[in-house]
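[retry 2/3] PAP2 superfamily protein: previous attempt timed out, resubmitting with same input.
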Amino acid sequence: MKKHLALILSGFCLCLLASCDKDVVESNAGYPALDPANIDADAGSWAPMVVSSAAAFSLPAPQPTSSAAYQQELQELKELRSSLTEEQKRVINYWKVGSVVRWNEIMRELVAKHNLPPYQNPDNTYPVPSAANPFAYPTFPFSNPPYAARAYAYVSVAQYDALVMAHYFKEKYKRPAPYQVDAAIKPAVPESALAAYPSEDAVIAGASLEMMKLLFPGDVAYLTGMAEEEKNYRLWSGANVRSDIIAGDSLGRWAARMVIQRAKADGMGAAGGNQEVWARLENDCKARGETPWYSLEVPKRPPMLPLFGEVKPLLFDKAEVPALRPGPPPSANSEQMRKELEEVLSYTRNATREQMRIVNFWADGVGTYTPPGHWNAIATESFVKKQYSEVRWARNYALLNAALMDAAILCWNTKYYYYNARPCQLDPRIKTLTGVPNFPAYISGHSTFSGAAATTLGYLIPEKAGEFQKMAQEASNSRLFGGIHYRADCTVGLETGQKVGYYAIARARTDGAD
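[retry 2/3] PAP2 superfamily protein: success.
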């Protein structure tokens, strides 16, 4: 595997990924314990994104706090609290910053772990990762940007829908937290006025585990361990009794299964296409009198997910994709393209220190959490300062990641509709400053992701809207400075991403949370 990794990195010209500038520096070690400024007690009335309604699951009523069964659960909690080990205290300190934020971090780690394109076979063909055999080489998944965007979205949506349902049942049953029933229980986390049944953390653990088992099947043992650790943390901290945990876990898993049904029918299974599809895309481009994109790798690698643009979006109807798709790029033989090529060549030959910093910071290539993950990291650093409730954390991530997934769909639909060549294919003098992605140029993925993310985040945190837009512009410029995109790719990509972001805003205005 070390040999494979070395060859992959060499083949992709990605030595710049080793730069210390490439990742957002996350100060998660210093995150405070979750103590929401607003508990969002009315969240049970918010609109879920996939689940039909908050009442779609039949959660049984809990035992009353006066019952013998509940009193036994309180006694268990006291015993656990009286004999905590150092490891259990570590677990409490890890999870108490918030369940949603921790699972988002776990997601980013797994995306980075699996963001490795397969190395070629001896016959110069490329193997395809298989979900049915995730431990065989190449391991499943290859979490490239489209795959990652979809994965972040579905996990966030499952968490959000499950938490909306949890709040519905909290309000319905109103069973108090154990420390509100018995003053002798001193919790290791901030006390909450929310009802305890079902446990929010158990809901999130159940939903996250079910979704991520589908998305990262080779990591089931690790994910199961983290979910169990999180549920135990609520017991060890004195925040929930065992029946709160069991009910939450069951509810979270059920909500995730509803999202999984949607995911299995969204068209992702056919996104890789086949040789017939690849040949048709190239021939269609030639028929328009244009120069088609081709793989720059040796041997030539099949294009990355050429039919991802046919995946069903989350925020708008699939039938709207052609109408949202931007018009064509400048013709390869046009004066406009000549000017844009000269601009790219100038940047690659005369890159400043600041431009190189920007290229490296936004590279987000092989072995990283991808551009969607980069925007999740940026969002996390901003969200944590707002003291959100768990359900608002989940709602905001769901809006952001739905926008990123749909941006990927629209971007990939555009890329493979036009099949536009990269700058270094039209002008061999251009030597890129970062790895050349294995898919067509127009429109820029970084720009589309960034336009969608900045627009969505600017609505959620309006006082930082200008800052997010500056970040998006810098991310877009990074691809021009690096020599892998023309200006039209970047400008139109940003505009297209913004259109997707407006759909996220439209949903936010009607989901009941504002």
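[retry 2/3] PAP2 superfamily protein: Residues 12 and 329 are 26 Å apart (CA to CA).
[retry 2/3] clearing retry counter.
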